[in-house]
Design a protein that fits this description.
The protein has 266 residues and is of the alpha/beta class. The chain is built from 14 helices and five strands. It is globular and about 45 Å long. 38% of the residues are buried.
């Protein structure tokens, strides 16, 4: 397949539309620096999996998903439980740990402005890599053990999922610029305000009945819901050497990485 034909296919097939889906995308078709490509239909990234409709069940089942990697906190999983059309999937989730970085906590002492929310998001992306270590390690381990196709998700499919998928892509040899471009696709594939408004109980991990998200000033919501390259860059800067991070913080061995590359590259 020519590069132009591959690009057309990528544009057509990357975003998967479901009535109850939120920011659902395939991360196949990305070229690595070594000349390989990520396989289509092996890793999907998305937001909350609670609101699928009956009409979504058949196309979801056709994805033949074997594992769901849920990066959310325990309280989020309880409030918005996963509702997948079949139960023969490996459901991956983790304990929250002692200190969990949240937007609510990080924004508490910052101005209630767009600039304050921007600073909150930078702080969040700097704090998430350490907290996500066990989650990243578990994602790599599952892929290495053959649990693909896999869905990787959080609440909106933007922040925690963005970091996890960017790390996965970079570990496969995908250039940083391409990993950032994948992250930025959230800005065109996920209308989070519309999703919340059309599903009255939808919370996306950033709201609850005591702190309704849609009462937040619009300028703050715009920053909160955006994918900004500066956010992901803050995470990359915090991570530093990706191989060292994977080995020490996530517990990913070279043998696991080899198996992940074998599973996801062609």
């Amino acid at each position: 397949m020519t590069s132009s034909a591959s690009a057309v296919r990528a544009e057509r097939e990357r975003v998967l539309s479901f009535q109850g889906g939120c920011n659902f995308r395939d991360v196949g078709g990305y070229r690595t620096q070594q000349g390989a490509s990520t396989r289509w239909g092996k890793v999907f990234r998305t937001g909350v999996l609670t609101y699928f409709t009956e009409d979504d069940h058949a196309p979801l089942t056709r994805l033949q998903v074997r594992a769901i990697c849920d990066l959310r906190r325990a309280e989020e999983r309880e409030r918005e439980p996963t509702r997948w059309p079949h139960t023969n999937v490996n459901a991956l989730s983790w304990d929250d740990g002692i200190v969990t970085p949240t937007i609510r906590a990080l924004s508490a002492d910052r101005p209630k402005t767009a600039a304050g929310m921007f600073d909150t998001m930078i702080a969040l992306y700097r704090a998430l890599p350490e907290w996500m270590g066990p989650r990243i390690g578990g994602m790599f381990s599952a892929i290495a053990n053959g649990d693909v196709p896999m869905v990787v998700h959080c609440a909106a499919g933007k922040d925690r999922t963005g970091i996890a998928v960017a790390l996965l892509l970079r570990s496969l040899g995908v250039p940083e610029e391409t990993a950032i471009q994948d992250y930025l696709l959230t800005n065109t594939s996920g209308n989070f305000e519309e999703f919340i408004r059309s599903r009255h109980q939808a919370q996306l991990g950033v709201t609850d009945t005591h702190s309704p998200l849609l009462s937040m000033p619009e300028e703050m919501r715009r920053v909160l819901f955006s994918a900004d390259a500066a956010f992901l860059q803050a995470a990359f800067e915090q991570i530093g050497d990706i191989e060292a991070y994977l080995a020490t913080t996530a517990g990913v061995t070279p043998a696991m990485q080899d198996k992940v590359r074998a599973a996801l590259l062609e």
